[in-house]
Structures are given as C-alpha cells and as structure tokens.
Design brief:
Largest sheet: none
CATH topology: Non-ribosomal Peptide Synthetase Peptidyl Carrier Protein, Chain A
CATH class: Mainly Alpha
CATH superfamily: ACP-like
Radius of gyration: 12 Å
Structural class: mainly alpha
C-alpha cells in the first residue's frame, strides 16, 4: 500500500462521499475539523513513524491528500 493509499484509508468513505480528489481541500470540504486533525496527527505519527511538532500544524501541510503525502515524505526523509 502506498503512502497515499494509507492516508486515504484513514479518511475512509468520507472522501468518496464528499467527492474529494487528492488535491482538493479537506478543510473546505469539511472533512478535517479540530478533532479530526488530532486523530490525523496521531495516525500519521504511529503509521509512518514520524514526529510532528506544533509549529508544523499549518493548514498547508494538511489541506489535501497530496499535501499530507508530501509532508509525510519530507518528515520520513529528514
């Protein structure tokens, strides 16, 4: 399973039901709220073995599947 598939799996059917593509805004679609963001951070840290600092919790890092995938790749490469 690719990183993108793993991230999409976290959101489950929410993405399909909202018709959200990989580069569409999860914030604008209402898929990510403050509680979902905390769940996402915990999931990413456990699933990918990365540590996410408070100063990295910016919308541009988590606004789309593509943005999340890119952010995770950068964290894993560091």
């Amino acid at each position: 399973m690719t990183n993108k598939e793993t991230i999409r799996k976290f959101f489950g059917k929410e993405l399909d039901n909202a018709g959200v593509g990989d580069d569409d805004s999860l914030l604008m679609a209402g898929i990510i709220d403050s509680l979902k963001m905390m769940d996402l951070i915990t999931f990413l840290e456990k699933e990918f073995g990365v540590s996410i600092d408070d100063d990295e919790l910016m919308p541009e890092n988590f606004d789309s599947i593509d943005a999340i995938e890119s952010f995770v790749a950068e964290k894993k490469a560091a």
